[in-house]
Amino acid sequence: MITLGVPLPMRTSEKPTNRPGVNAERQSPAGALSGPASRKLPVPPRERRPALAALALLLILGGALATTLLVLRSGDRVTAIQIVQQVGTGQRIPQTAMREVQIADTGIDYVAYADRVRVSENYARVTLLPGTLLTGKMVVSSSAELGPGKAQVGLALKPGQLPSTLLQGDRVQVIHVSGRGEGAGTQSRVLAQAALVHSVGAAGRNGVSGQVTIIVDATVSPTIAAYASNGEIALAELPGAR
Questions:
Q1: Tens digit of pLDDT for each residue in 144-203?
Q2: What whole-number distance in Å separates Cα of residue 126 and Cα of residue 137?
Q3: Is residue 75 within a helix (H) or strand (E), and if so which, with residue range?
Q4: 138 to each of 83, 91, 144, 167, how far by Cα in Å?
Q5: pTM
Q6: Nearest to 113 by CA among 125, 131, 95
Q7: Other residues' Cβ atoms within 10 Å of the Cβ of residue 187
Q8: What's 160's DSSP letter?
Q9: 31 partner at 20 to 30 Å CA-CA among 19, 57, 162, 163?
Q10: What ranges do the domains of the chain cover?
């Protein structure tokens, strides 16, 4: 009796497949990206702003033009009159009170130094302090201070009867100080509220010499002159009334 044996199973070996995409992770080098991860992200196109570029260009050109104009303008110099001594309101402006200065041409109506002779024939509209650059609006052709109804009174005062710092162009109170009778020196009254100091004598060791000329109303000038002859006049400076 012939027995048929059961055929033994045959052992087969599996070969690695070469199909793309299979075991891709095992076959890729360590640390390398694969697939979509290795692709670069798209960069949005840079937005152009022609208006801002044009504005920046205009600002640059404007700044350069302004700088050029300033440099050119700084070279334009003119001569002007500078006041070197105080001139009171309504007083003539003497040539000795003027000096020549060079300044930048700023367009302001400064009086040219070449016109100093004509200026000396006119009067100060306002009190001119040392260092003032003279303009046309500061000068007038006639003076109310020296016009009709005014009088110049000369005073010879002693120390203590006037401030030691008194200057031409100052405003002063003219005060009558009684020097006779009981209570002498304590009674006083104001004869002129804001008289203009027209001139002051040369200063000595103790300040002004005491020779002062003031401009007052003609109605009160005889009274001031009479009291001054008796030594009963004193002057009080009014700095805020210049």
A1: 777 778 888 999 988 888 888 888 888 899 999 986 554 554 578 999 998 988 888 876
A2: 9
A3: none
A4: 11, 12, 14, 20
A5: 0.51
A6: 95
A7: 13
A8: T
A9: 19
A10: 77-140, 150-241
